């Protein structure tokens, strides 16, 4: 059993314009983060109003929190995310924008019992519009993407109101 990993799920419909906007950014970080895929800059919410509807809905669900960093990732075949966390924030999230049930899942490994292999891992199968919110200290990764189409995800870091 995973120690203290709590994942909340919500559905927020995806506007097709968001997908196109994300694809227009390409790889702004040049694969310099733990995410080895096309990665936008960290604070899209500051200068792109295309994401306001998502941000507003997120803040309706989490009224005592604010998104501090918002970015998007487009995984193509072979792209992946190394095991990492979002330490320094209250929460983090992944919102599946354009995926299929065969896309590589988001995995929260059992770091207390790694010898049990995948037996105790928490696995999140991508589904368009699904938002998963978790503690910022929770380690997670994405194995190499195997589908021929892009796997598009919007992610972010969240602080409690007053902490940012």
Highlighted features:
164 residues, mainly beta, Jelly Rolls, five-stranded antiparallel beta sheet, 2 helices, 11 strands
- In total, the number of domains comes to 1
Q: Percent of residues in helical segments? A: 10-25%
Shape: globular
Distance between the termini: 33 Å
- What is the C-alpha radius of gyration, as a whole number of Å? 15 Å
SS strand fraction: 35-45%
Category from helices, strands and their pairing:
mainly beta
Name the CATH class.
Mainly Beta
Number of helices: 2
Report strand order across the widest sheet.
Answer: 1-9-6-11-4-3
Classified in CATH, the superfamily is q2cbj1_9rhob like domain
Q: Could you say what the CATH architecture is?
A: Sandwich
Number of distinct beta strands: 11
Give the mean pLDDT: 92
User: Would you give the CATH topology?
Assistant: Jelly Rolls
Give me the strand/helix succession.
EHEEHEEEEEEEE
Major sheet size, sense and barrel closure: 6 strands, antiparallel
Uncertain residue ranges: none
């Amino acid at each position: 059993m995973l120690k203290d990993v709590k994942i909340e799920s919500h559905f927020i419909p995806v506007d097709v314009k968001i997908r196109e906007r994300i694809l227009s950014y390409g790889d702004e970080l040049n694969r310099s983060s733990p995410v080895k895929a096309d990665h936008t800059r960290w604070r899209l919410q500051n200068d792109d109003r295309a994401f306001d509807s998502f941000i507003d809905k997120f803040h309706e669900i989490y009224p005592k929190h604010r998104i501090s960093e918002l970015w998007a990732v487009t995984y193509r075949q072979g792209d992946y995310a190394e095991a990492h966390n979002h330490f320094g924030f209250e929460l983090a999230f992944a919102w599946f924008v354009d995926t299929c049930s065969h896309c590589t899942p988001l995995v929260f490994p059992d770091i207390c019992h790694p010898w049990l292999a995948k037996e105790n891992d928490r696995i999140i199968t991508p589904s368009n519009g699904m938002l998963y919110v978790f503690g910022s200290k929770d380690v997670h990764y994405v194995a190499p993407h195997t589908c021929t189409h892009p796997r598009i995800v919007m992610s972010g870091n969240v602080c409690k109101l007053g902490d940012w």
